[in-house]
Design a protein that fits this description.
The chain is of the alpha/beta class. The protein has helices at residues 2-15, 17-33, 39-51, 56-73, 81-93, 119-132, 149-160, 173-186, 203-220, 238-250, 269-277, 298-305, and strands spanning 107-112, 137-142, 163-165, 191-196, 225-233, 255-259, 281-285, 293-295.
Length: 307
C-alpha cells in the first residue's frame, strides 16, 4: 500500500509540473527576492496565486490567513512564509472528513459532466477500483444522447470486469436508471454507478432529466446511499468552476472528480473549487492508467505542488 501511494505521489509531483512552473516558481522568487514582509510582498504573492487559477475568492482567504499567521507568530523573514502559505492552502482545501461512505454501503452514484471532461473514463476507472476492492458493481449507461457514449461505457465495463445496463442510443435516461436499479436490487449489487448526461447548453432540459432520475431512484431504491459526482477538466481552469456552479443548480452535488491535472498549468483550480464551492474534490486524475484516478488528499496535493 505504501509503495502504491509513493508511486502515485511521484506521478502527482510529475503531473503537477506545469502548475508548479506556473505558480511555485513565481512564489519562490518572491520569497527569495524580498528582504522584508510588506504590502508589496503580499501583493506579489496574491497576484501569482490568482494567475495560477486559484481564483480571487480563494486567494483572498489564503492571503488573510497568511497575514494573520505572520502577525501571530511574529515572522520577520519572507523566506519563512513559504511553509505558512502551504499550511494556509491546505486549510482552505480541508472541508473536514472527505467521506467515501458510498464504498461501504448499498449505494447509487450519479456521475455528471460535459462532453470531453473524461467522465466515461473516470467511471470506468472508479468501477475497476471498486471491483478490485471486492465490491459488486453495476454501471448504468444513462448518457443516452451523446453519440457513442453507450459503446464507450460498455468497453470500460468489459475492461473493468463489471456488469452494464444499457438501452439504445436516444432512449429515456430515467428508463435506463429504472432498469439498472431493478438489476442492482435483484443481483445484490453493492454500488450502482450511473453515467448521466451533462448538456449544459440547455440547462432546463438537464435539470428536468436529473430530477426525473432522482425521482426514479427515490421511489425504487429509497434505502440506497446517494452520491453525486461532477467530473471537471482541470485544463479549463476557472471555466471548470463555472460548470460546477451550474451543476450545483441542477442537482445536489456531493463531490468533484478533477481530471487531466497532468496536462495543465491550472491545477490551482483544485484549491479554488474546495474553497469557493464548499464541495470536496474527492478524486483526481493524472493519467490514462486505471490507478491514475485516486482519492484526493489535500496534504499530498500541496506537498506535490511545492515539491
Amino acid at each position: 500500500m505504501a509503495e502504491g501511494k509513493k508511486g502515485f505521489f511521484g506521478r502527482l509531483v510529475e503531473g503537477l509540473q506545469k502548475t508548479r512552473d506556473n505558480i511555485v516558481s513565481g512564489i519562490d522568487s518572491i520569497f527569495s527576492g524580498f528582504s522584508a514582509i510588506d504590502d508589496d510582498f503580499y501583493e506579489e504573492i496574491e497576484e501569482t496565486l490568482i494567475m495560477g487559477d486559484l481564483g480571487i475568492a480563494a486567494t483572498m482567504k489564503i492571503m488573510d490567513d497568511l497575514r494573520e499567521q505572520v502577525r501571530e507568530r511574529h515572522i520577520k523573514e519572507p523566506s519563512e512564509c513559504k511553509a505558512l502559505l502551504m499550511e494556509s492552502m491546505k486549510r482552505q482545501m480541508d472541508l473536514g472528513e472527505n467521506a467515501y461512505e458510498f464504498e461501504n454501503r448499498r449505494s447509487v452514484v450519479l456521475v455528471i459532466g460535459v462532453n470531453g471532461v473524461g467522465k466515461t473514463t473516470s467511471i470506468g476507472k472508479l468501477a475497476g477500483q471498486l471491483k478490485d476492492q471486492g465490491r459488486h458493481v453495476i454501471l448504468a449507461a444513462a448518457d443516452t444522447f451523446r453519440a457513442a457514449a453507450v459503446e464507450q461505457l460498455t468497453e470500460w465495463a468489459h475492461r473493468a470486469g463489471v456488469e452494464i445496463i444499457a438501452h439504445q442510443e436516444g432512449s429515456d435516461p430515467a428508463a435506463v436508471v429504472y432498469d439498472a436499479v431493478a438489476a442492482a436490487k435483484a443481483r445484490g449489487a453493492d454500488v450502482l454507478i450511473c453515467d448521466t448526461a451533462g448538456r449544459l447548453h440547455n440547462k432546463k432540459n438537464l435539470m428536468e432529466e436529473l430530477k426525473k432520475i432522482d425521482r426514479v431512484i427515490d421511489r425504487e431504491y429509497p434505502d440506497a446511499y446517494r452520491e453525486t459526482l461532477v467530473v471537471l477538466d482541470g485544463t479549463t481552469g476557472q471555466n471548470a468552476l463555472a460548470q460546477a456552479r451550474q451543476f450545483m443548480e441542477a442537482t445536489d452535488v456531493t463531490g468533484i472528480i478533477l481530471t487531466k491535472l497532468d496536462g495543465t498549468a491550472k491545477g490551482g483550480i483544485a484549491v479554488a473549487i474546495q474553497s469557493e464551492l464548499g464541495i470536496p474534490v474527492k478524486y483526481i486524475g493524472i493519467g490514462e492508467k486505471i490507478d491514475d484516478l485516486q482519492k484526493f488528499d489535500a496534504d499530498a496535493f500541496i506537498n506535490a505542488l511545492f515539491a
